[in-house]
Design a protein that fits this description.
It contains three helices and 16 strands. By secondary structure, it is α+β, with helices and mostly antiparallel strands. This is Tumor necrosis factor receptor superfamily member 21.
Amino acid sequence: MMPVMCVSAVLLCSMVADISARGLTATSTVDQPTLSARQYQHTDPNSGTRLACDKCPAGTYVSTHCSPSSVRECTPCPAGTFTRGENGVQQCHRCRAPCPVGFTEKVPCTTTQDRVCACPPNSFSSGGVDGGCKPHSLCPPGTRVKKRGTQTEDVLCRPCTKGTFSNVKSRTTKCRNHTDCQALGLVLLKPGTKETDNVCGSPSTIPPLFSPSSSFGPQHAALKQEPVSSTLTSLIYGAAHKGENRNDK
């Protein structure tokens, strides 16, 4: 009889312990405060109560947390520190160091914002303040600016496409279309390239077709126009003259 009673007592104790544990878990869940976007959670060190404290405004920090009987206290950020928005932090963030040589201070350090350093116009830095500023590249003739440079990226250049050209160095210029000579009532004298425009001219600037006199010269033209009979006479006379010279010898 005794062993049965001992087993029953053990089972009863286990059930009571399990029920107690569930009750504690449920109670801790109920103790969770409901927070709004303008509140933060704080556990009171004296009572262990979880509280929903109001956040401090930008430019300040929580110097004293709220308690069951008092609200939180806020203190302005010291010089050289900041908090951007409503917060529950216990100290302000330190601003970045002053901008190094070659950079300009785009945004100053205040109690509500951090310092922002930037490169001067027409320059960039791909490695932040540690990388230093470099001037934006100039796209050479024959290329175009596909993407303008930014504070962190250089200018991106690409070759001019067919029918377009660029004859200057630039950080902003795009390729221009070749001049349409025909649309202007002109003729194309010299085709353009990626670096030069078409050369146009009036039709009168085109040289005339070559004539026999211009191709062979006046002497050849005269020879071509000379009658066949006179040519034969000259040949016969020349042969006879050579024969006389031989007889004289």
